TrEMBL record:
<feature type="zinc finger region" description="UBR-type">
    <location>
        <begin position="48"/>
        <end position="112"/>
    </location>
</feature>
<dbReference type="GO" id="GO:0061630">
    <property type="term" value="F:ubiquitin protein ligase activity"/>
</dbReference>
<dbReference type="InterPro" id="IPR039164">
    <property type="entry name" value="UBR1-like"/>
</dbReference>
<feature type="region of interest" description="Disordered">
    <location>
        <begin position="1"/>
        <end position="22"/>
    </location>
</feature>
<dbReference type="GO" id="GO:0016567">
    <property type="term" value="P:protein ubiquitination"/>
</dbReference>
<comment type="pathway">
    <text>Protein modification; protein ubiquitination.</text>
</comment>
<feature type="domain" description="UBR-type">
    <location>
        <begin position="48"/>
        <end position="112"/>
    </location>
</feature>
<dbReference type="Pfam" id="PF02207">
    <property type="entry name" value="zf-UBR"/>
</dbReference>
<comment type="similarity">
    <text>Belongs to the E3 ubiquitin-protein ligase UBR1-like family.</text>
</comment>
<keyword id="KW-0863">Zinc-finger</keyword>
<dbReference type="GO" id="GO:0000151">
    <property type="term" value="C:ubiquitin ligase complex"/>
</dbReference>
<keyword id="KW-0808">Transferase</keyword>
<comment type="function">
    <text>Ubiquitin ligase protein which is a component of the N-end rule pathway. Recognizes and binds to proteins bearing specific N-terminal residues that are destabilizing according to the N-end rule, leading to their ubiquitination and subsequent degradation.</text>
</comment>
<dbReference type="GO" id="GO:0005737">
    <property type="term" value="C:cytoplasm"/>
</dbReference>
<protein>
    <recommendedName>
        <fullName>E3 ubiquitin-protein ligase</fullName>
        <ecNumber>2.3.2.27</ecNumber>
    </recommendedName>
</protein>
<keyword id="KW-0833">Ubl conjugation pathway</keyword>
<dbReference type="GO" id="GO:0071596">
    <property type="term" value="P:ubiquitin-dependent protein catabolic process via the N-end rule pathway"/>
</dbReference>
Length: 112
């Protein structure tokens, strides 16, 4: 009798605890990344940097004429604004997502 009573109770409380933990951590992760993304966007807005953050599988550009670092990447808008069409550029599909380096002197020339 006692065992029959205790077993479902144990299982239930354990399952509930697991469910709670999973949903809590999921919710935290999601809101955290959204929070970071919006914080990034907002902090970059104050500078003249474009600072666009893009999601994976978005087309971005890399300009070897303007870029100091090979890992620089700029968004389509900055590519057209900076008129890199005559430069040594290449268009690539960003696999992991990234951020626009436009205006970042450490990775590209100022006039880029
Ligand atoms: Zn940009
Ligand atoms: Zn360029």
């Amino acid at each position: 009798m006692d065992i029959r009573k205790a077993d479902p109770y144990e299982a239930d409380s354990h399952a509930v605890r697991e469910r709670e933990e999973r949903s809590r951590s999921c919710g935290r992760d999601a809101s955290l990344s959204v929070h970071i993304a919006s914080e990034l966007m907002r902090s970059y807005d104050k500078h003249d940097k474009c600072g666009l953050v893009w999601i994976p599988r978005v087309v971005a550009y890399r300009c070897r004429t303007c870029g100091i670092s090979p890992c620089m990447s700029i968004c389509r808008e900055c590519f057209h604004r900076g008129d890199h069409s005559t430069h040594d550029f290449n268009m690539f599909l960003s696999q992991a997502g990234g951020a626009c380096d436009c205006g970042d002197n450490s990775v590209m020339k100022e006039d880029g």
